[in-house]
Amino acid sequence: MPTRKVTVATLAGLKDRDEKAVFVTAYDYPTATFADRAGVDMILVGDSAAMTMLGLPSTLQIGMAEMLVFIRAVTRAAQRAFVIGDLPFLSYQPSDETAIRSAGAFVAAGCDAVKCEGGARVARRVRAMVDAGIAVMGHLGLTPQSLGQLGGYRVQGKSLAAAERLLRDAEALERAGVFSILLEAVPAETAAFVRERTGVLVYGIGAGPHVDGQLVISHDLLGNFVGEIAPKFVKRYAEVGSAVEGAFRDYARDVRAGVFPGPEHCYPLDPADEALIRTARKTRPARRLPSRPTPAVEAAP
Fold this sequence. Notes:
Elements: H1 8-16, E1 21-25, H2 29-37, E2 42-45, H3 49-52, H4 64-77, E3 82-86, H5 96-108, E4 113-117, H6 123-131, E5 136-141, H7 147-150, H8 160-176, E6 180-184, H9 188-196, E7 201-205, E8 213-216, H10 218-222, H11 240-257, H12 271-283
Parallel strand pairs: 1-2, 1-8, 2-3, 3-4, 4-5, 5-6, 6-7
Helix pairs in contact: 2-4, 5-6, 6-8, 8-9
């Protein structure tokens, strides 16, 4: 039976039935395959790949070329999940044409939608992309591409005035045509305040339970993020990092002890051929590599 692809209409149907959408990040073919098989509804190919996959200090250092590599890998795997590509820093801000070309490249690479950060100030860019036929998700609250303005990784929307500013930005994005908004690192009451007054789907990452679905970074979920960032909202469902490190340690031990590879890991030979080759090993001189010269030792002054 063919797998039915998740669409914007599918996601709207989940909300109509009061069912939460399941949303994770993925950046490579295996992770996206496992997420898709598990029935995840949406996959975000996030610019968080800068830190999770490339070891960069923030999302500001990743560009279109790197993002397209990750997107192509994920979209090859996602048979069911709705795939959203995260537009990187300066790939949409400079002009409407830049935004359309960047978003179009993501769609051509297999994305179902794109995501961009910011509210009223990017509404014009959102409208340009939407008018070009591209589905757009907005992103409000903690917006990592604006960390310099936000003063670091800080919770947003902690007062009524701040919640109302978020709502105004959400309304601007809604007017611009987004199909959904992601709220990051805001209190649960603030997220509920925005969602209840917005006519589009509202998802959360660190925004409490009163939203239409939950996003987590897959490396946080799996316990294989290498870095110092550990948000309060992270819940680990596995310790893949520890398991991988342990496997490498066991492998190194076996190689150094000479117990890997064992007989069961070797290709068998016909006994007669094996005897002939063994005899040839004994009777024909092996090639000797030239010995390396001993480095000269300088006399002490």
